[in-house]
Amino acid sequence: MPERRFRVWRGDARGGGFQEYAVEVDPGMVVLDVIHRIQARQANDLAVRWNCKAGKCGSCSMEINGRPRLGCMTRMNMFGADEVITVQPLKTFPVVKDLVTDVAWNYERNKRIPPFKPRPRGADGQHRMMQNDVDRVQEFRKCIECFLCQDVCHVLRDHDRKDAFVGPRFMIRLASLEMHPLDAADRIPAVRAEFGSGLCNITRCCTEVCPEHIGITDNGIIPLKERVVDRYYDPIQWLARRIFGRGGEH
Amino acid sequence: MEQTIRVGGHARGLAATGRTDRWWVGTLLTLLGLTGFVAYATWAAFQPGHFFHDPYISPFSSPLLFVRPGAAGAAPLQHAWFGAWPSWWPSWLPASPSLLILIFPLSFRLTCYYFRKAYYRAYAASPPGCAVGALPRSEYRGETGLLIFQNLHRYALYFILVFMVVHYYDTFWAFFRDGVFGVGVGSIVLTIDAALLTLYVFGCHSWRHLLGGKLDCFSCDASSRLRHGAWRKASILNASHGLFGWLSLFWVAFSDYYVRMVSMGRIHDFSTWG
User: Fold this and answer.
1) Is residue A50 a part of any domain in this protein?
2) Cα–Cα distance between B247 and A199 in angstroms, integer?
3) Most CB atoms within 10 A, among B12, B105, B157, B167?
4) What is the pLDDT at residue B80?
5) 3 state SS of B84
């Protein structure tokens, strides 16, 4: 079995540093497997969050050679034979211990999003919608909340504007609610003001790192920004609304 | 839970990153590509002549609003929408038709959702790459401050739709010299230019939104079903919006260059007209 060299950041909120490990790697292993082997054989106190090992729970988010990735979906054979593999916690969120970060901010922000508010039922007492109407929304529902998009978003990562921007994950949650054919709530003012759609400068890193390949930018954020334009920056639409009422938006 | 971001071992500062791949290659190519285009377009915009060679007109000069009769390589007077070059035009500015119109396609590309990514990364380092340190700022405001004009992309779209029609008009007449149908290399160059512009514009995010993306219900009535079909087709093009953006950018500059070279006599335009 070939031996590979790993640099793993060890520490907590007070500080820490990189620790080097030489690990035997079997064919077919992923980075999370190697982290577990280090944990089992060399560093029993190494902290890592994980659950499904199948790319569906979103727990094992980490930065591998500087790129936000899921540890369980990063195969060892993608690295060069002599490459040193550096593993770090997510940069955007506070470190709890080693590779574990505190992502509670995300859940707190999520609570502020106005929930689904169903339209009144039809004359026959039913809610009806067609598959065509929810295809877009279903793409967003693939999100596993790994928060890699939040981690890579430079508005949060480099500029630390958590006070003003909700981040890509919750922009697509907002999009999934706003585009839902049975939803009656109006979140566009909040998308612009409280959730900060204008801070996104659509550099698409969120889309690049999404392990579910959700079109976060093209299908979620940009359509939301266009809806904000409809409401606030388009005088023709404004005039249409004045003349034709709410129908002017459509 | 305050802490500095150095906890975790992350580098901090402009272009700081732990990435070991060649993340800078894409940014560098973007920088070179956009800079090359801007340099050529600026030079071409200040050239008063050689934008026409019967039956070709450079897309940089069309729609041709005014023309200065007698200028080398200029179109005949009857080609201009409003006739002879205006007398009020400042003498220190060359009488170049491009200067009157390039602002419209430029504004479309400047506010394009794809090109915004490209130049924010390449010129503003905001950020230069994914998980690569952005240019530090005292207060990042994104597109809410000076860049709020980006919200008017759809107006630039309206103008470019008109330009697209004009391009097709020019392309149609590029197959007729003195009323005789024929095909020249220039006819093909201008046809490709119009086609690439169409593929780029019809994949535009604002176009896609206005066609049907703004609807919540695609199945509610005949109109929304029709718009859903249009939205789906725009979505197909939208998936390659960046690719068509680059191809059309390169080709429009090449089309201008080709017409200019033919007009200057430096390239022979092979054609069925002989």
Assistant:
1) yes
2) 29
3) B167
4) 95
5) strand
Say which amino acid occupies A62.
M
**Shortest Cα–Cα distance, A28 to chain B (Å):** 22
pLDDT digits (tens, 9 = 90+) for B78-128: 999 999 999 999 999 999 999 999 999 999 999 999 999 999 999 999 999
- Give the other-Cβ count within 10 Å of B32's Cβ: 11
Report the number of distinct structural domains present in chain B.
1
CB distance B37 to B253 below 8 Å: yes
Top residue of B140, B159, B211, B225 to mutate, by most chain A CBs within 10 Å, is B140
CA distances from B163 to A58, A124, B66, B175, B193 (A): 47, 50, 16, 19, 12
Instruction: Answer yes or no: do A133 and A97 share one domain.
Output: no
Q: Which domain holds residue A32?
A: 3-101
Distance CA A222, CA B207 (A): 12
Residue reference for tokens 């504004």: B107
For residue A31, how many C-alpha atoms fall within 13 Å in the half-sphere facing its CB? Answer: 30
pLDDT at B3 over 50: no
Verify that A111 and A205 share a domain, yes or no: yes
CB contact under 8 Å between B216 and A179, yes or no, is yes
Amino acid identity at B63:
P
Q: What does the block give as tokens for A87?
A: 């593993």
The dihedrals phi and psi of A23, each to the nearest 5 degrees, come to: -130, 140
Choose one of A101, A117, A150: the last residue of a domain. A101
The total number of structural domains in chain A stands at: 2
Of A94, A118, A93, the closest CA to residue A13 belongs to A94
Q: What tokens were used for A15?
A: 């500080």
Determine, for residues A227 and B214 on separate chains, whether the beta-carbon distance falls below 8 Å.
Answer: yes
Which of A56, A76, A101 is at the close of a domain?
A101
Closest to B251 in 3D by CA, of B211, B195, B193:
B193
Q: Could you tell me the two tokens for A77?
A: 């054979």
The mean pLDDT of B28-41, rounded to a whole number, is 98
Quickly count: other Cβ atoms within 10 Å of residue B201's Cβ: 22
Nearest CA distance, B192 vs chain A (angstrom):
26
Q: Examine the pLDDT at A244 and tell me if it is beyond 90.
A: no
The verdict on residue B212 lying in a domain is no
Q: And the tokens for A8? A: 């793993």
Q: Which of A12, A201, A227 sits opposite B126 (nearest CB)?
A: A201
Domain identity same for A27 and A135 = no
Q: Answer yes or no: is B254 within a domain.
A: yes
Residue pair A134/B219 in contact (Cβ under 8 Å)? The answer is no
Cα dihedral value B189, B192, B193, B197, nearest 10: 180
